[in-house]
Design a protein that fits this description.
The protein has one domain. It is built from 3 helices and no strands. The longest helix has 43 residues.
Length: 97
């Protein structure tokens, strides 16, 4: 088997995985934005919190936003994948039952 073909196949597989992750992230962001907009509209229509406390949609927006931020980090922060790291991963899979 040609090493160049193997490397090209591996790079192509990594690119496809990255594209799928980016599409999933963008879908998640769209759902986040639409849902949070709806929650804030519901809050505004039902009385803007006469008690003066923190609006309840702020909790949803904050914690879900934190999850979106972590997903963005995982999707777009690419650390270099060295051949040695790949070899260690393959070796672990061979040893594991």
């Amino acid at each position: 088997m040609d090493t160049a073909t193997t490397d090209e196949d591996r790079l192509r597989a990594q690119a496809v995985t990255g594209i799928k992750q980016q599409r999933g992230f963008l879908g998640h962001v769209a759902v986040y934005l639409v849902t949070n907009a709806l929650l804030w509209v519901i809050w505004a229509v039902n009385g803007v919190g006469a008690d003066g406390g923190i609006p309840w949609p702020a909790h949803v927006t904050s914690f879900w936003g934190l999850g979106v931020a972590f997903q963005a980090w995982g999707t777009f922060h690419h650390s270099a994948i060295s051949d040695a790291r790949v070899d260690r991963g393959v070796e672990k899979m061979r040893v594991s039952p």
